[in-house]
Design goal:
Blueprint lengths: L2 E7 L3 E7 L7 E8 H8 L23
Antiparallel strand pairs: 1-2, 2-3
Length: 65
């Protein structure tokens, strides 16, 4: 499975490690994405009707983005 682990959040960015994004069990550390870009991505459909996938978004409301 593809997993993203959030490591830090600041005023502008979310920092994370991307695990198995290449489907070769690679872990890519020290990634970052702006909160605006994350918001844009989360507003799109997460599941494709063509591809059979499972997804899960976990968040902690005590640390809102």
């Amino acid at each position: 499975d593809h997993t993203i682990v959030t490591t830090q959040v600041d005023e502008e960015y979310v920092y994370y490690a991307d695990c198995n994004g290449d489907l070769k069990s690679t872990i890519v550390y020290h990634q970052r994405m702006s909160k605006d870009k994350l918001d844009e991505l989360l507003c799109k459909p997460l599941l494709s009707q063509v591809v059979s996938t499972r997804g899960y978004i976990c968040h902690y409301r005590g640390n809102e983005l």
